[in-house]
Inverse folding.
């Protein structure tokens, strides 16, 4: 298939010398995530292999032989100097020798399965093989959403199947159009089991489908699974909204945590509690690291030690931009690092998160730092959304001033895609990442409103960065919004005092869910959970 200039062709992605292969992994026995991580590690360290990208992880219904447990599936992109036959040998060695897989019968349960799906030679031409032990392209890939969905996270929409010459995204859509529920996957974010928690696999789970928007008659991927409520537990004396004076009274905080759990678990199966020991209000005085640790670690330990809290329903998050605080909080039992700085305030943050692949990471958009972000809120946008002029809306903005940006989401999306690429370079896995466009961080009233209204665009954003030859899309990445009690609400509702903004925040919770947010971060968990469950009932039940 001929590729014209602005198309992204495999050759340019393929850094010119080695071959490029796409593998699919699957596991449905034991600690599936562990098997997958071990297989990735073995692959990464194998001679003749260069890891270039890993997709999200999905939970899928077993196909063909359905009397078995659900699988975890995903895809891997590698550069390789191995021939297809040697690459197959390596996969088998990893499956059977290293990870002691036993194959009882076709399509039966397995600890790990590594399949070669596609293989492109050094010139970027798709290789076809039809041997008894190896068929490339994989003969059953076009009937499997658990292969095509992760593959479409790694490959731009113009990449076609070598035999059908049809775009992979179209093959995937054809399966979805059959409307078989078992084909719709759960996108999962694996969460660590700290010693005190039950041993079961823990995940954040999101299910999305393509839905035609009545007004625009365009198809957008929308989430149809329940929203996660992230309840704010600020332990700072000056946090601008709940002014909790009782940050030193740790028993008092524990009882507040109990109340939050009661309030949210009345409507949801899980509750995320976001513990913050250092205010991030614009121009606020920053607590020292030592002070932040004192305010947060003991509380995390107390929560995780508490016998009368529903541990397997509580997901703990720490709101910090400091890598040391993040590391200690993970040891104390948090599952999510919520970093408002997108890893830009502390050069060690990405490396720290990369060491814990079963800890989720909120990658937020910001410009400048706590004291300078308000001056950085200039975005030269126009109101109408003019999509990028390349295939299927792949942006290719060079991030220089000369470019006439058309739209806020293209600016924020591009800037987030750069942080995303840096995070992956540092070894963070795509499956760990939650996106947050950062309401109130280097944004004025108009931008905050536009961020919410353009959420469907951000969730479908993709960019091919000419400089880094990197294709990035945000497909299946969950989005978190934190509108609660913020200044832009007070400006519109004329509520000077943040504590008076809860009712308005409740409205904004519903609006945010309507525009597709997957996680909502709120102060008043009791009242906002009601807004959330109401909005979920309207917008998210298919
Ligand atoms: N959901 C799901 N179902 C499955 N059924 C059969 C096989 C066997 O695959 P093979 O034909 O590539 O060995 N793999 C899976 C899988 O990975 N996920
Ligand atoms: N992920 C995320 N975290 C945040 N932490 C603090 C604040 C500032 O608000 P607060 O001081 O009321 O917590 N806002 C966010 C936000 O919007 N997103």
């Amino acid at each position: 298939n001929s590729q014209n200039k602005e198309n992204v062709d495999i050759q340019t992605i393929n850094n010119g010398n080695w071959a490029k292969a796409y593998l699919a992994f699957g596991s449905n026995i034991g600690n599936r995530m562990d098997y997958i991580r071990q297989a990735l590690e073995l692959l990464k360290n194998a001679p003749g292999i260069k890891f270039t990208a890993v997709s999200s992880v999905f939970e899928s219904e077993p196909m063909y032989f359905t009397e078995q447990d659900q699988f975890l599936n995903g895809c891997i992109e590698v550069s390789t100097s191995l021939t297809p036959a040697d690459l197959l040998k390596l996969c088998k060695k990893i499956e059977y020798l290293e990870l002691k897989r036993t194959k009882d019968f076709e399509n039966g349960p397995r600890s790990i399965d590594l399949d070669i799906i596609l293989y492109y030679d050094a010139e970027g031409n798709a290789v076809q093989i039809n041997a008894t032990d190896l068929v490339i392209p994989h003969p059953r890939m076009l009937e499997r959403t658990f292969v095509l969905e992760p593959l479409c996270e790694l490959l731009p929409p113009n990449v076609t199947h070598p035999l059908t010459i049809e775009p992979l995204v179209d093959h995937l859509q054809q399966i979805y159009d059959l409307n078989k529920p078992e084909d719709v996957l759960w996108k999962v974010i694996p969460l660590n089991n700290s010693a005190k928690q039950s041993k079961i696999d823990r995940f954040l789970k999101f299910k999305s489908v393509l839905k035609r928007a009545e007004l625009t008659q365009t198809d957008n991927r929308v989430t149809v699974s329940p929203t996660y409520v992230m309840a704010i537990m600020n332990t700072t004396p000056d946090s601008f909204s709940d002014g909790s004076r009782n940050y030193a009274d740790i028993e008092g905080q524990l009882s507040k945590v109990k109340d939050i759990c009661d309030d949210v678990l009345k409507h949801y199966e899980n509750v995320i509690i976001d513990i913050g020991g250092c205010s991030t209000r614009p121009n606020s005085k920053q607590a020292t690291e030592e002070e932040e640790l004192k305010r947060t670690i003991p509380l995390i330990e107390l929560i995780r030690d508490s016998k009368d809290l529903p541990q397997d329903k509580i997901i703990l998050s720490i709101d910090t931009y400091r890598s040391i605080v993040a590391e200690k909080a993970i040891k104390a039992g948090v599952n999510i690092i919520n970093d408002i700085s997108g890893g830009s305030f502390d050069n060690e943050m990405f490396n720290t998160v990369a060491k814990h692949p079963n800890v989720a990471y909120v990658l937020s958009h910001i410009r400048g730092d706590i004291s300078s972000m308000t001056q950085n809120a200039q975005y030269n946008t126009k109101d109408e959304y003019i999509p990028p002029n390349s295939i299927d809306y792949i942006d290719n903005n060079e991030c220089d001033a000369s470019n006439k940006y058309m739209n806020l989401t293209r600016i924020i999306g591009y800037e987030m895609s750069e942080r995303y690429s840096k995070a992956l370079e540092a070894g963070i896995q795509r499956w760990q990442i939650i996106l947050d466009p950062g309401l109130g961080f280097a944004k004025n009233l108009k931008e905050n409103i536009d961020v919410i209204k353009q959420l469907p665009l951000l969730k479908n954003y993709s960019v091919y960065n000419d400089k880094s030859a990197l294709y990035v899309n945000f497909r299946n990445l969950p989005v978190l919004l934190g509108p609660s009690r913020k200044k832009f609400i007070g400006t519109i509702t004329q509520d000077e005092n943040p504590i008076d903004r809860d009712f308005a925040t409740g409205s904004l919770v519903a609006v945010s869910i309507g525009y597709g947010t997957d996680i909502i971060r709120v102060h008043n968990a009791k009242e906002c959970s009601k807004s959330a469950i109401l909005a979920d009932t309207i917008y998210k039940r298919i």
